[in-house]
TrEMBL record, chain A:
Annotated family: Belongs to the DNA polymerase type-Y family.
Protein name (database record): DNA polymerase Y family protein
InterPro entries: DNA/RNA_pol_sf (IPR043502), Rev_trsase/Diguanyl_cyclase (IPR043128), SulA_CellDiv_inhibitor (IPR050356), UmuC (IPR001126)
Source superkingdom: Bacteria
Pfam families found in the cross-reference section: IMS
Domain UmuC residues, every copy: 25-147
Keyword terms: DNA damage
TrEMBL record, chain B:
Record's keyword terms, sorted: DNA damage
InterPro entries recorded: ImuA_translesion, P-loop_NTPase, SulA_CellDiv_inhibitor, UCP037290
PANTHER family: BLR3025 PROTEIN-RELATED, TRANSLESION DNA SYNTHESIS-ASSOCIATED PROTEIN IMUA
Domain of life: Bacteria
Gene name linked to the record: imuA
Keyword ATP-binding (UniProt): no
Protein name listed in UniProt: Translesion DNA synthesis-associated protein ImuA
Length: 472, 229
């Protein structure tokens, strides 16, 4: 087994930086807000260093952007990284707060050599604008130790790995403080000297735990790791250093997240039709925007257009401090239904979904309606409006047996104000609704008014005359 | 340059009083032979606006478009009804053979949304026909719609009131509709591309309520005169 360890020296910094449009100086501050923990290259160029007091840093760079370190947030960001790494490697272990471990020995044949695996992961890191120190070791612990010293190399040679480990100082070997001090008092300075000690002596003179640690580094003791399993949904978050007040400012980070979504959907070979965008504000309840497409979709551009429309319609209530995009509903991707070679029908289908999604995004879901007849005697209940759906190749029922009805139905019966000029057919008695309390008892006539309009009029039980439709 | 000029002449964009030109613009037959003859065999122009000017519903204005609706909805094209004044009655449309899966009803709240929606529908390749009932339209807005209609190739019919007949409009076809004496629809061509306007014709619309000619004089002395009719 060979293990690849990714150590993210400043993950939070990378995460915040890639959601920013302007690259100003930026620093991560510890929980109490006293010290600088991580500083970006721009800040470093102006003299800000990790470990520096915050006051000193601000006096050096007055416009320093600050992000407070938060363990929950870091754990979540680390999991985001595991999610994309899962596409390349199956056996992944999270090592909080800043490490990922992947078993790569079994991937060599798939990728065609260890260097190909290494390059693939490196490329993935570059695409996501992340900095990580990578190392390969024959045990999980060896890989971790080498990665954290930044001396990782792409090699499967156990001898080479051991030589690198032997040169390592005791501090980097992650012995606990007490053990390290005892080892130093014995006169040992490098890990190699500790490894050379006989195991029995090590356990007796120091402690069994120290022996276990050393044996785990060497690979003489089992170090089982439980593989991480990704949840079946997509979630990405962008945190902002400066609050965003204009919805335009949200589009830049959304663009990156949506292209990751597109990649993720392509990798799953799935589509989705609803996105949940949560905008968090400092002092208010988060805004939840549900963006729906009328059909399965995976293209980032299409999603971005819809979100842009939604944001145009709903201006921000308050400045946004972070946004979360999540997708929980996945649809299987359909094979092209088009029968023709050139795929014209498919194109039309897609254009239909694009148009309807656009209209719904701006006008609201209820603005678009499709009509269908219903089996009821009462005219106002003999039809229904439903959500717009794309129906393909369904056989149409035979509606020619339906009675003659006007093409226009009034939204409610209107009182007849004048005597009709001509009477045609009638009466047609419609009586029903006793079963649900909406009783209707009417005689319908077709009549022409003086203006020449052909009307569908009725007289109800109470002897009132009403117009209910126009023969348009 | 001369090429552009001849294209303008060919498409009947430049109106020439002394000559009738057979235009080659794409169009859809109306389904009424009488009207098609009056329109020089063109019918509803595609990729251009048409206007129907009428005052009251119920004179057969929807039946004028019904043959087109039937044909387009079965040809897989979508028919949009934008802000209709009343509810299009689904059982009647279904009985007339319109494929209701392809009929979409849209209601917008303000004028900005209306124009935006109409423009989007016109530019989409899925649209076959858009029937729209605008409120007030400025000439600039009609011009904008005309450009959107040119971008697509579908039929767009605006239903407006008859008082707009006096105003000029960039629409390619303008029809004034009025009720006739025999429950028919009188169509007055106010404007069409490539020829003189002013043609009048009358379309029989009795079938919209299954009326026969001979029934007409059979006047029922309305129930107004007494209860025992």
């Amino acid at each position: 087994m060979l293990w690849l360890y990714l150590h993210f020296p400043h993950l939070l910094l990378d995460h915040v930086r890639r959601s920013r449009e302007n690259q100003g100086a930026l620093a991560v501050v510890d929980g109490s807000g006293q010290k600088v923990v991580q500083a970006c290259p721009e800040a470093q160029a102006q003299g800000v260093k990790a470990g520096m007091r915050l006051k000193t840093a601000i006096s050096l760079v007055p416009g320093l952007g600050m992000v407070r370190a938060d363990h929950h947030q870091e754990a979540r960001i680390l999991e985001d990284q595991a999610r994309w790494l899962y596409r390349y490697a199956a056996h992944i272990v999270l090592v909080p707060p800043d490490g990922l471990l992947a078993e790569v020995g079994s991937l060599q044949r798939l990728y065609g050599g260890l260097s190909a695996v290494w390059q693939t992961v490196e490329q993935g890191l570059n695409e996501r604008q992340l900095n990580a120190w990578m190392a390969i070791g024959h045990t999980p612990l060896a890989a971790r130790l080498i990665a954290r010293t930044g001396r990782g190399e792409c090699t499967a040679d156990k001898g080479h790995i051991l030589r690198t480990l032997e040169r390592m100082s005791l501090l980097s070997a992650e012995f606990d403080d007490k053990t390290r001090i005892r080892l130093q008092r014995i006169g040992l300075n490098t890990l190699g000297e500790v490894l050379a000690l006989p195991p029995n002596e090590l356990a007796r003179r120091l402690s069994p735990e120290t022996l276990a640690h050393v044996q785990k580094i060497q690979g003489n003791r089992a170090d089982p790791k439980v593989p991480w399993q990704p949840l079946h949904y997509f979630r990405q978050q962008a945190d902002f250093v400066q609050e965003i007040e204009q919805s335009q400012g949200l589009l830049f980070p959304l663009q990156r997240i949506l292209s990751e979504l597109e990649e993720d959907l392509c990798w799953r070979q799935q589509d989705t039709d609803s996105l949940l965008l949560v905008l968090q504000h400092r002092h208010q309840e988060p805004t939840r925007l549900r963006v729906r497409t009328s059909g399965p979709e995976h293209r980032a551009e299409a999603f971005l257009n819809l979100i842009r429309l939604r944001l145009d319609q709903h201006p921000l209530r308050a400045p946004v401090i972070s946004l979360v995009l999540s997708v929980k509903r996945f649809l299987g991707r359909e094979a092209t239904t088009g029968q023709d070679l050139l795929g014209e029908t498919q194109d039309l289908n897609e254009a239909w979904h694009t148009l309807v999604s656009r209209l719904q995004a701006r006008l609201g879901d209820n603005a678009l309606r499709q009509l269908s007849p219903q089996a009821d005697h009462r005219p106002e209940r003999a039809w229904s409006a439903s959500e717009v759906l794309r129906v393909q190749n369904s056989r149409l029922p035979d509606y020619t047996q339906l009675p003659r009805r006007p093409l226009w139905l009034l939204k409610g019966p209107q009182p007849l104000t004048e005597a009709p000029a001509l009477w045609f057919s009638g009466p047609e008695r419609i009586s029903g609704g006793w079963w649900d309390g909406q009783r209707v008892h009417r005689d319908y006539y077709i009549a022409q008014l003086a203006s020449g309009q052909l009307a569908w009029v009725f007289r109800d039980v109470r002897d009132g005359w009403f117009v209910h439709g126009w023969f348009g | 340059m001369s090429e552009i000029l001849s294209t303008l002449m060919q498409d009947a964009r430049v109106w020439q009083g002394h000559r009738h030109i057979q235009t080659s613009q794409p169009s859809e037959p109306t389904g009424y032979q009488v009207l098609d003859n009056q329109l020089g065999g063109i019918g509803w122009p595609r990729g251009a606006l048409s206007e129907c000017l009428l005052d009251e519903p119920g004179i057969g204005e929807l039946h004028l478009l019904l043959p087109l609706m039937q044909r387009l909805s079965h040809g897989g094209k979508t028919v949009f009804w934008l802000n209709p004044p009343h509810t299009p009655y689904a059982p009647a449309l279904a009985r007339e053979g319109v494929n209701l899966d392809q009929v979409v009803l849209i209601n917008t709240e303000d004028d900005g949304d209306f124009l935006w929606t109409l423009e989007n529908c016109l530019r989409s390749p899925v649209t076959g026909l858009v029937m729209a009932w605008p409120g007030k339209l400025a000439a600039r807005e009609i011009r904008r719609l005309q450009l959107a209609a040119e971008a697509g190739s579908n039929v767009c019919v605006l239903f407006r009131e008859r008082r707009y007949a006096e105003q000029n409009s960039p629409a390619a076809l303008r029809l004034e509709l009025a009720a006739g004496d025999q429950q028919d629809l009188r169509v007055n061509v106010l404007k069409r591309r490539g020829s003189w306007p002013g043609q009048c014709c009358s379309l029989a619309m009795n079938h919209r309520a299954d009326l026969a000619f001979r029934e007409v004089p059979c006047v029922v002395q309305g129930p107004w005169s007494g209860r025992a009719r």
